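ARCHIVE CARD
SHELF: 3
SLOT: left
DATA:
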Amino acid sequence: MSMKYRSTPGRSLRPWFKPLLIVLISFTGPILRAAEPSQALQRQVSFRRTFGGAGMDEGNFAQQTADGGYIAVGVTTSFGDGAWNTWLVKVDPQGAEQWSRSFGTGRYESGEALQVTADGGYIIVGATLSTEPQDYDLRLLKTNGNGRQLWTRTYGGTNWDWGHSVRQTADEGFILTGWTDSRGAGGGDLWLIKTDAQGEELWTRTYGGSENDCGNWVQPTDDGGYIVTGATSSASVGNDDLWLIKTTATGDPQWMRTFGGAGYDEGHFVHATSDGGYIVVGSTTSGSDRGSDVWLIKLQSTGSTTWTRTFGGEEWEWGNAVAETPDGGFIIVGTTLSYGAGASDLWLIKTDAEGNELWTRTYGGHDLDFGLSVEPTEDGGFILAGRTFSYGAGNSDMWLIKTDSEGQAIF
């Protein structure tokens, strides 16, 4: 596992998926674009919206805002300065764009994740190409509520460093995780950084060995520490293993757990649950000769496994984000090649509290479509962010879908 196998700037893709994606793009035929279904028959507040221009645009994460609308972050080649820009888009409760902002330096900037902050602004994590040809740094960018930049900070060294996740902490500072090749024990380490409210580094920790290790998501825990998930090659039994680390408030490890087999296994998102435990979603190629499956793992507060579930068909599936729902179950978003209308579709899965599937929904057209984030909304529905090649204005567009509690975007 290495961030250097990214097929395009934005969310990382596994090295074994890169050739598959190239084949899909090459052989799915001409891009068949369609207008999204009319909003005229909409019976409740749900929507499907695309945002973008003639270039490559994608949405990586979306969250509801205090005014009932939504904020989304991603990357764009259609707008801004340079080849790739961090892109922030604000929409109203019906999904109509209110404003958008691009942030760039003329080279490469990414927006991987965001959070609405206590002051009503936004914090964005990603990466920036600081010098050619290969020196990427982790970047943290703070804006006000109108998306105007207040400050930006970079963290890194002379090699590749990348940010995947940011959360605000109780002291109004921030905790970041990602991947660093500039420091640590070897080929690439999971990286945890704690900052103050202005993004000034308070401490940093790396976790890993001589192989590649990566952090994909971090969340503060009730005891003042942090829970992090990602992947490890250094401590794996196969190619990569899903990796879960619980730390103290200063980043010292309390426990670590690895999950996996002979294939590629990775944790993409971790969420603290109402019972004091954790829910992790990722993907696994271990134990199946069909491809990759969505992997859901429920753990106790000590990291002991309560249960695991996999979801998938004959082809390839990935789980990218998970949240607990009011009924004690879980909502998962990812991508499926086994089901849906086209080459790949956004895949939404609802489970009960034991991880048993209650229903699934697919969204997509004839081409490649990806689901990257899911967050519950105040009305009991869900806001989804992703990327679509099937709809929109250009090569690929940011895709926002607002569903009801049953995962339906009704028109």
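SLOT: right
DATA:
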Amino acid sequence: MGNTNYTKKIIDDYCVLDTETTGLSAYYDEVIEIGILRVRDNKIVEQYAQLIQPEYEIDPFITELTGITNEMVKGMPSIMEVKDAVISFLGDDVILGHNTSFDIRFLSEGFSQPLDNVYMDTMQFARKVFPELKHHRLSDLTAYLGLSNNAHRSLADCISTKELYDAIKATMSEKNLKIEDLWKKEKRKQRYRKGIDISTIVPSAVEIDDDGFFFGKHVVFTGTLEKMVRQEAMQLVVNLGGILDNSVTRNTNYLILGNNDYNAILHGEKSSKQKKAEKLKLAGQDIDIIDELTFYDIVNA
């Protein structure tokens, strides 16, 4: 993570943030719920929860995933109407979340101004503290650690994230681990992974950072990219430790769509790969659909 606002700390005062959205693209999708917890001395002292009415209707896939319907958000404030309240609630606190950069990117786009708070990511901590887990989604971690149920609703996810951070701190204390022990300044050599279907694309990087977003993840591209040819984008993924596949399977972690293809989702036009990815996600598979612009944000972070 190269963002200068990203940090890794052990602290007792912060805000936990979670958003529910109509997809993973801050450029094409919208926020439909915001949840925030204010934590002081490790205790929740105040909370903020608000449904948001999007400009476009919520897709049935998102309703099935989150439980948020078009009827529930009807008459709710727009994202701009809650801007001042959210910024005021967050204040200058460090923001804690799970995949926090996505939430911050959505709010920055929705508010038409950057959200400049320093932030931390429990997913990055969890990957280091609980390396025995294959997946580090919030749902995986809550089940593994016996935390409050994660329900794909903002406030519930905030509570799970706060409990996860508490568990991370407790585990680090038990094992006498410090921040510098988790993030040692070393790089691992790139390993060529057998089973990559795209045999012509091999790693060109000698070393990679195993904290990278795509490290060890199976990635599928579909549609036409606007900013670069698909092979160049695939090369970026492989250099970051990702594993390329030709088609969406139960192993797939990310389906990356060209902008035009992602935009088509908003009009109900979905490819067979998109439909399969959505079906797998609803069945519990660790898979997400990302647009081209969000992909560039990730690889340039």
